[in-house]
Amino acid sequence: MKPDKTRRAILIVLDSVGIGEAPDAAEYGDTGANTFAHLADANGGIKLPILKSMGLGNIPPILPKGKIIKGVQPTNNPIASYGALQEVSQGKDTTTGHWEMAGLQLDTGFTVLPAEAPSFPLDLIAEFEKRTGRKAIANYAASGTTIIAELGEQQMKEGCWIVYTSADSVFQLAAHEEIIPLEKTYQACEIARELCNPLHIGRVIARPYIGTPGNFTRTDNRKDYSYPISEPTILSRLSDKGIEVTTVGKIDDIFDHQGITNVRHSENNHDAKKDLLNLIKDGQSGFIFVNFIDFDMLYGHRRNPQGYAKALEDIDLYLAELIPLLDDDDLLMISADHGNDPTFKGSDHTREYVPIISYNKTASAKNIGIRQGFFDVAQSIAKYFNIEPIPRGKSFI
């Protein structure tokens, strides 16, 4: 089996863009969630002509409880293959979704911490304070913007850390960039990562901010520290065969930089879109793995269906610019890692099916159905580049 190093496959993850409650949604308290359909309803419809032409509107009818996306009706002649992915791993977080898409399966989900203080064990916090030389305040679940508004002034005065979690399996560390230098915050996150590993916590996240009391703003200097990966992903399997693996957005952090040959790190859709376009124009070959984070970070968690819809319409316009740049042999896949229904209760991710769209200019479009496991994406990538099959999943190409 000879790998094809000249090919190019692009996987775009629309972070949190679910398409309807998964069969096990009740186990997560997410019965009735539907990110795409509900944000469309909240806006009186949504205009996505490119995604509609690719078969996005054809996906709800194949789901058990599918709900038509208002403004995105089924089309008789989609230009891409379409279907839905059902997650099999335990969890509904960013790491679990991306890892399963890359070929892994987590039978035991990451640890979700108690919402009330103390979220993290007091002995962990004590060791963290000892090793960083600074006090930690908060230690409960909170919105990142809310907690810096409430505790940012104290953090600045005392030079301490704001430690908090969320409905995800995360240890988040906030500090004002003018009080604690970024490199010190990143070093503290590395210490926290080591301390959190025995608890099976998915991510440690640096959350730097700037500004003055009453006017704090989180910066783009966020950095994620992932739980160690236990087996090779499709990224490592490709790079081991000499195939270029380029990541755009926050993918490098999610995969602990393993199996990646080129990095274009960004923390917002605007920069990620620009980086992907430049890669295509420059003729970058191999596998390009992209995350567009704004849907989840700015609109899902903050329960803002209007902002969410506008961001999706912007992506649709972007696809109209991107697709004509693709070569005849290029493979473009569009999916998501979980749901985050902006009309749902709370501010957590939602356990949902996610869309899968697979586009090639010369391939016939088809209904690829409901796929059992996000890892069908990784298996399809393995087949496309003509490398050995991965242990899980079935190719849809």
Q: How many domains, as an integer?
A: 2
Cα shape: globular
Tell me the quaternary state: single chain
CATH homologous superfamily (4th level) name of the largest domain: Alkaline Phosphatase, subunit A
Uncertain runs with pLDDT below 50, 5 residues or more?
Answer: none
Q: Which CATH class of the largest domain applies here?
A: Alpha Beta
CATH topology heading of the largest domain: Alkaline Phosphatase, subunit A
Helix content: 25-40%
Query: In order across it, which strands form the biggest sheet?
Result: 10-9-11-1-12-13-2-14
What is the string of SSEs from the N terminus onward? EHHEHHEHEEHEEEHEHEHEHHEEEH
In CATH, the architecture of the largest domain is: 3-Layer(aba) Sandwich
Percentage beta strand: 15-25%
- Tell me the structural class: alpha/beta
Q: Name the average pLDDT.
A: 96
The helix tally amounts to 12
Computed Rg: 21 Å
Describe this structure in words.
This protein has 397 residues and is of the alpha/beta class. It has 2 domains: 8-107 and 228-384, Alkaline Phosphatase, subunit A (3-Layer(aba) Sandwich); 122-226, 2-Layer Sandwich (Alpha-Beta Plaits), CATH 3.30.70. Helices cover 30% and strands 21% of the residues. The chain contains 12 helices and 14 strands. The strands form 2 sheets. Strands 10-9-11-1-12-13-2-14 form an 8-stranded mixed beta sheet, with helices on both faces. β6 and β7 (215-218) form a beta hairpin. α1 packs across α11, α4 (122-132) packs antiparallel against α6 and α10 (294-300) runs antiparallel to α11. The mean pLDDT is 96.
